[in-house]
Specification:
alpha+beta; Fusion Protein Consisting Of Minor Coat Protein, Glycine Rich Linker, Tola, And A His Tag, Chain: A, Domain 2; five-stranded antiparallel β-sheet; 5 strands; 21% strand; signal
């Protein structure tokens, strides 16, 4: 069971599920918390008039210096829904905007945050 690491911003919740397999949540919490804190500052979700039942999942691959190894990948792209697509793209842009994520090695070894999946939960 993954323990979510989350931060609340204007009724928006970002939780972080970390890879690699075999790493414990206790080992990853400090780096995950720092990553979430940085990403939430950069996330500007689109306005919505109703509840959205979609949580974009973004795979983020990092180099040891905290720069992006590649473009963040939307793992669960929505089907032909303008607002959900905008939400997913806003989440992806938040990761790009916040990079590089320097200094994470002070919180956990590189292997703990080399590849992470960030799940953006929107409660409007």
């Amino acid at each position: 069971m993954r323990r979510p690491i989350c931060a609340l911003r204007r009724m928006l919740l970002i939780s972080l599920a970390l890879l690699p397999v075999g790493a414990s949540a206790q080992d990853l919490d400090p780096a995950g918390q720092e990553l979430v804190t940085r990403i939430k500052r950069c996330w500007v979700p689109p306005a919505s008039e109703g509840e959205i039942r979609y949580s974009p999942r973004i795979r983020v691959s990092l180099l040891p210096d905290g720069h992006l190894r590649s473009e963040p990948e939307i793992l669960n792209p929505p089907e032909a829904d303008g607002h959900r697509t905008a939400l997913a793209e806003s989440a992806r842009r938040a990761v790009v905007r916040c990079a590089p994520f320097e200094g994470l090695e002070a919180y956990a070894p590189y292997s703990a945050w080399e590849t992470v999946i960030v799940t953006f939960h929107a409660d409007f």
